[in-house]
Amino acid sequence: MEQFPEQASTNWIMATFIYTFGAVAVLLVLMGLVLVDMGMVRRRNVLDTVVQKIGAAMVGGFGTLLIGYPIWQWQFNQAFGVPSPLWQAVKDWWLGGSFTSTPSRYIDPALLPEADVLQIFLVFFVTFTMATIGLIHTGVVERVKPLPFYVMSFVIGAVLSPLVGYLCWGSLSPLTLRGTHDFDGIFPLYITAGTFVLVLAWRVGPRLGAFRSHASTARPVGHNVGLVGVGMLLILFALPFVTIGSGFIIADVGFFGISFTESGIGVVIVNLFASILGGALTGLALGYARKEATWALLGPIAGLVMGGTLFDVSTAWICLLVGALGPFVGLGTAALMRKAGIDDPKVVPLALGPGIVGALLCGFLEWGTPTGGYIGLEGDYAVGVAEITPWWQLAGVVATVVVVGVPALLMCLLFEKFGGLRVSEEAELVGLDVTQWGVSNFGDDLRPPTGPTGAAQGIAGPSVALPAEPDGLRF
Question: Which residue spans traverse the membrane (predicted)?
Answer without folding.
Answer: 12-38, 50-72, 117-137, 149-167, 187-204, 225-251, 263-286, 293-311, 317-336, 348-367, 391-415
